[in-house]
Amino acid sequence: MDHFNPDRLLSDERKKFEDPEKFLPELLKTGEIVADLGCGPGYYCRVLKDYASKLYCVDKSLEMIQRARSYCQGDNVVFVNRESSDTLIPSGTVDVVILANSFHDMDRDAVYEEIKRILKKDGRVIVVDWRKDAPFGPPPQKRMCKEDYLSFFKDFKLDREFYVGPYHFGLVLTRI
């Protein structure tokens, strides 16, 4: 699977192994401010908008932001065509950051600092990422495992793990 092909990223086939409607509802509280960093064509945004009082869909690719805008609409959705390391989201205003299959492609150090800047003191990061042994997805050498995230997110604690599907893992990290 080409993990940058917008049509494949929005396909019904993807729902068979990664369906955010099956796990996001139990991880979110209604009315939170959410930032989807590296949102791509809006696969997660479509679900997140129903829970968020404000949803920031952030992606550096104008093509992906345009796709997300056509795929996910709502008065509470703000599309941000910028690097995830420089979102212009006001400091300390975000309850939840979503990193869905994206952090491995980012400037991790800079994005980590941006996450700490935009999150509220008790904010959460929800991670969905590819298992290293998944038969498709990003190149295996780019993938991060649970332990990689836990060592990288040193200002956070692991609150819970959740099941995404056979090819992904899910983590909820809370700022400490």
TrEMBL record:
Superkingdom of origin: Archaea
BP-aspect Gene Ontology terms: methylation
Domain Methyltransferase type: 36-127
GO molecular function, one term: S-adenosylmethionine-dependent methyltransferase activity
One Pfam family it belongs to: Methyltransf_11
Gene3D superfamilies the record matches: Vaccinia Virus protein VP39 (3.40.50.150)
Keywords assigned: Methyltransferase, Transferase
Ribonucleoprotein is among the record's keywords: no
Family named by the database record: Belongs to the methyltransferase superfamily.
Annotated protein name in UniProt: Methyltransferase type 11
